[in-house]
From TrEMBL:
<dbReference type="InterPro" id="IPR036688">
    <property type="entry name" value="MoeA_C_domain_IV_sf"/>
</dbReference>
<dbReference type="InterPro" id="IPR038987">
    <property type="entry name" value="MoeA-like"/>
</dbReference>
<keyword id="KW-0479">Metal-binding</keyword>
<dbReference type="InterPro" id="IPR036135">
    <property type="entry name" value="MoeA_linker/N_sf"/>
</dbReference>
<keyword id="KW-0460">Magnesium</keyword>
<keyword id="KW-0808">Transferase</keyword>
<comment type="similarity">
    <text>In the C-terminal section; belongs to the MoeA family.</text>
</comment>
<keyword id="KW-0500">Molybdenum</keyword>
<comment type="pathway">
    <text>Cofactor biosynthesis; molybdopterin biosynthesis.</text>
</comment>
<dbReference type="InterPro" id="IPR005110">
    <property type="entry name" value="MoeA_linker/N"/>
</dbReference>
<keyword id="KW-0501">Molybdenum cofactor biosynthesis</keyword>
<dbReference type="InterPro" id="IPR036425">
    <property type="entry name" value="MoaB/Mog-like_dom_sf"/>
</dbReference>
<feature type="domain" description="MoaB/Mog">
    <location>
        <begin position="284"/>
        <end position="428"/>
    </location>
</feature>
<dbReference type="InterPro" id="IPR008284">
    <property type="entry name" value="MoCF_biosynth_CS"/>
</dbReference>
<comment type="function">
    <text>Catalyzes two steps in the biosynthesis of the molybdenum cofactor. In the first step, molybdopterin is adenylated. Subsequently, molybdate is inserted into adenylated molybdopterin and AMP is released.</text>
</comment>
<dbReference type="Pfam" id="PF03454">
    <property type="entry name" value="MoeA_C"/>
</dbReference>
<protein>
    <recommendedName>
        <fullName>MoaB/Mog domain-containing protein</fullName>
    </recommendedName>
</protein>
Amino acid sequence: MVIAMIKGSLEVTPMAMLSRPVCGVRGKTLIINFPGSPKGAGENFDFVKKPLKHAVDLLSDKKPEVECLHKAMQSSNLKSKVNAVNVADRARKSQFETIPVKTAQDIVIQNCLEIPSVVEKRTLKNSIGFILAEDVLANDPLPPFPASIKDGYAVFVSENSQLQNALLQVRGDSTAGESPDKCHVEEGFCIRVSTGAPVPPGANAVVQIEDTELVERTEDGNDEKVIRILKSASKGQDIRPPGSDIPANELILPKGTRLGASELGVLAAVGRPQFSAYRKPIVGLLSTGNELQSPHDMVLEKGKIRDSNKTTLESLFQKEGFQTLDIGIAKDTPDAVYQKLVEGLKKSDVLVCTGGVSMGEKDYLKRVLVTDLGATIHFGAVLMKPGKPTTFATCTLNGNKKLIFGLPGNPVSATVTSHLFVIPALRKLSGWDTPLYPAVKVQLEKDIKLDPARPEYHRVTLNWNTETGVPLASSTGNQISSRLLSCNTANALMLLPKAGEFPNGIATAGSLMTAHLLSL
Ligand SMILES: Nc1nc2c(c(=O)[nH]1)N[C@H]1C(S)=C(S)[C@@H](COP(=O)(O)OP(=O)(O)OC[C@H]3O[C@@H](n4cnc5c(N)ncnc54)[C@H](O)[C@@H]3O)O[C@H]1N2
Ligand code: MOO
């Protein structure tokens, strides 16, 4: 066995199941997996040189572009280097350290930060949810002219007259959309104005129609000739001065603003129909498993189930505004997993796989990622329920770093881990500063038995109509990770500590807990 120290620690792990040495990096540790005996490792020493060189660069923080994808990626006949394992020789312990959720989230976000953001030109259409990549200043003021706030009369109020009981001649009208210069207001006269219409030159107040009476009609009887002002008026009343809503050249939307309906409306109002925003990542979705059939199949073959993860995750990511691509279903063979991974990585920025990450002899995902794609697995086990075998890896394709999530196949585990890891990553890559769901304090409706070993993300429905002002959290029932019904109606993930932290291992009704708010 070869062990070397390079400005950090180097760990060398024999791993009988691999056909050749492969390397991965965890923190500052380079992990080289050898195919069996120390003799085998020695024979392969030449092959180790490249990973060692990479380690030197990496540990000295040079961050080289790692050639991660195997050359065979270019070929259509992708043969995995992963050998099927002799069942008796399979690993009986996970090779991955189980890390806390917070640590795992930090690793994901850190990797997102290392991907340069892409800025694109966008327009008002289909830009909801995008993040501005530039400071936006108003081109034009709003309103662009002094605008009437009421339907009534534009009048002139002098220093010593408040116009109460004044008789004014109606000189014409100004309706919305007309040029303000059409007529002029002076003492003794007024102009009929409608809401939003320009207040004509000379006028300095608007009197609403309710505060006037008609005194005299025109000769044909159809129009107003003279009106009386019933209430005293003050200068500036019921006029929006130019730029009073949005001044010209004012910074209205700073870089980093998430575009919602009103932000887009503001851009429309001030003459900024084009702007720069961060591109959103494209999400590839790959289901793995021999047992999976299409959800459209009406008849299930023996031993099969329908692929529900694809539909759930597709809907979840689309609801968050991300474009998804269906990469299909990979059978449980190294070649099939390899081919689908390559296809997914070529087509997407973030590849989300479900299934095949646990301890089964046909759980190939992690091995194919490392052996065939030279991907770096940053973590492969997280201290959480559900979602323990959640896996996160990165690799580089044509100079672009790609994120790969290997989510557990159980439908609830895939959903919960999408909320906790995938969506924050997608948001971060889209330019969000704070991509995690907000945490709120909630009150437990009923006693809940805690898991002895893992903190649990319990699906709850929050009821906001409580007298206390703290939302009441009702469990969605049986929380087994296969029961997707437990996610129905859930609008929060309530974080329950592991059993030791509560007497008798029970979180009692009325206790305050933290919950991640998924929706209102
Ligand atoms: N010996 C151990 N076994 C398991 C462990 C462990 O620590 N040691 N962890 C368990 C936990 S926790 C989970 S979660 C699962 C995760 O397993 P995998 O990610 O390998 O997923 P699969 O085995 O492929 O599938 C699990 C389950 O989910 C169903 N499934 C898979 N894909 C889909 C899909 N697209 N749509 C609907 N349902 C799907 C699959 O049929 C299985 O029932 O491992 C435990 N085992
Ligand atoms: O951690 Mo698993 O996701 O409980 O079923």
